[in-house]
Amino acid sequence: MKALCWQGVDELTVEQVPDPRILNAQDAIIKVIASTTCGSDLHLLGGYIPMMKSGDVIGHEFLGEVVEVGSEVRRRRPGERVVVCSIIGCGRCWPCRHDMWSLCENSNPTSGITDLLWGGSTAGIYGYSHAMGGFRGSHAEYIRVPFADHNAFPVPDDVEDMDALFASDAVPTGWMGADLGGVRPGDVVAVWGCGAVGQMAARAAVLLGAERVIAIDRYPERLRMVERQADCEAIDYTATDVDAELRERTGGRGPDVCIEAVGLEADSAGPMRVYDEVKQQLHLEQDRPIAVREAIHACRKGGSVFVLGVFTGFVDKFPLGALMNKGLTLRGAQQHGQRYIPMLLDRISKGELKPAQMATHTMTLDDGPRGYDMFKHKKDGCVRVVFRPS
Amino acid sequence: MKRVLFGAATLLGTGAAVARWLAARGRAPVVTKDPKESLRWLGVTINLPREEVMPDGVPPRPLSRLDVEVRAEQAPGDRGTELYARPRRAVPTGPMAILGRLRGTDPRQEVRKALRDAKSILETGEVLRPEPEPAGIHGEPSAIQKTKTALTAPKSRAASIAQPVRADRSGERRQPGLRDRVLALAARRAPGEGRL
């Protein structure tokens, strides 16, 4: 079959690779209908995520049709149209049973690496390095889905492919930021980053009853899109002092909940960008936590900061003093998608969420490298590229 | 004069720090000198009641196939059962333990993997099998290769900074960078074992 493969820093190729097969009795094989680029893929392309190997198939956010199931699969059947959570959960360990699916203890066959890095193993992720299990990604014609009963969700007939696709990752990730960030009716919520996840976090905050939601980015088309899509306010961080702007809009308090949806390659209009870039390239820190710093500084006393962006290791100039003295709550997680996907498909069906708008470009797999070039450099207003393998 | 004083102060400061570090080395409770290291139990918590983890006191497979001491205790709260094991034979300690781990000969490695596998079998009925190594080897003959397109590196990143060596056009695999090598070496004790 055809697949989009990582070959090295900023290098992708389309290759012929062996078809996936059932390796465990609870596996299913899915024929990919649509698979989308994700901001976290850019960290793979940039060489920031360790344990990638030349030839790895990337992609983790996808929708497909079940074509084969293992002997122990009970709930999924060939022919079903399913959206698959990008994070793999076994459904039976303690974290899965408590709806913390990205902490699954049985879905990462190479868990020793994350144990070593972070002091605890985390769930497997499709197409996201050999630290996360070495699973082949979804930018391919077919993909193996382990523990299929727990990870593949049937899509209602009235939900279009392009809407259902984002229920795999961007929608539940954004929803989780607002939900576990503790958004309550009447809150003021600020969201750093207006990629697909940030936009979904902003929309989720609105649906959870936030009084005001303020999204922060620098790309005009993304700022306009989030204003329309999430019905919220927007701040261009290259045009104004974000901290001062947030205080002015909140009576000097700062936002009640701050959601960071940027990640380890954060940018800034100020000198911190250069400072962090130098430290990152010298391996004195692994990640650029610019948006996390801003969020902690801007958050109101006693407020909550949720980190949705992907980080891998150590950061410098972390404002622990502000965190402690302002009495903030800091949380973060890879998405616990299985917790939200059925509810989110229902909300999409009712028209409360319209994630298909984020699919700004659609291509075949053959155009994969070009698609990532557009996505990485935000060419032509690109928010997400969707690949249709067939 | 100022320069000389500054240099002398820096040297003194560095010397004092190094001397302090050297003196502290003998006292520090490092893992390799931990007297409990050779007796330490390795454990996993299994989300099942004790009677299902060790029915009639029989250890679950694959632990039952190893020459190990095994015990199980009810975990606090609703967390299931804590299953512990340790090799009966002597295990290396100190620098030999590190060497053993890197060589893959430390008996605790086998116990760690068995504990993790036992947990997975008990909770899910199977041990997830990893997929075969990278699928799309760069440079294999393929008509689709014509679509190969290298992404343009952003201008803000200096070319010299890209750590991993790019795959060349003759079909060689990308060579892992220093960070990947260190991680791979350190994690040799780890795949499938977990940090127990």
Range of strand content of chain A: 15-25%
Tell me what portion of residues of chain B adopts beta-strand conformation: 5-15%
User: Would you identify the regions of chain A where 5 or more consecutive residues have pLDDT less than 50?
Assistant: none
How many strand units of chain A?
18
Give me the side-by-side strand order of the main sheet of chain B. 1-3-2
The structure class of chain A reads alpha/beta
The CATH architecture term of the largest domain in chain A is Alpha-Beta Complex
Residues in helices of chain A, as a percent range: 25-40%
Radius of gyration of chain A: 20 Å
Q: Mind describing the biggest β-sheet of chain B?
A: 3 strands, antiparallel
Q: Span between N and C termini of chain B?
A: 57 Å
Description:
- Chain A: Its cofactor is Zn(2+).
- Chain A: This is Glutathione-dependent formaldehyde dehydrogenase.
- Chain A: One of its GO terms (molecular function) is metal ion binding.
- The complex is a heterodimer of chains A (390) and B (196).
- Chain A folds into 2 domains: 221 residues, Medium-chain alcohol dehydrogenases, catalytic domain (Quinone Oxidoreductase, Chain A, domain 1, Alpha-Beta Complex), CATH 3.90.180; 160 residues, 3-Layer(aba) Sandwich (Rossmann fold), CATH 3.40.50.
- Chain A contains 14 helices and 18 strands.
- In chain A, α12 links the parallel β15 and β16.
- Chain A has 390 residues and is α/β, with parallel strands linked by helices.
- With 196 residues, chain B is α+β, with helices and mostly antiparallel strands.
- Helix content of chain B is 33%, strand content 11%.
- Chain B contains 5 helices and 4 strands; from the N terminus they run αβαββααβα.
- Chain B has a 3-stranded antiparallel β-sheet, covered by helices on one side.
- Chain B starts with a helix and ends in a 10-residue tail after the last helix.
- The chains are: A alpha/beta (390), B alpha+beta (196).
- β2 of chain A pairs antiparallel with β4 of chain B.
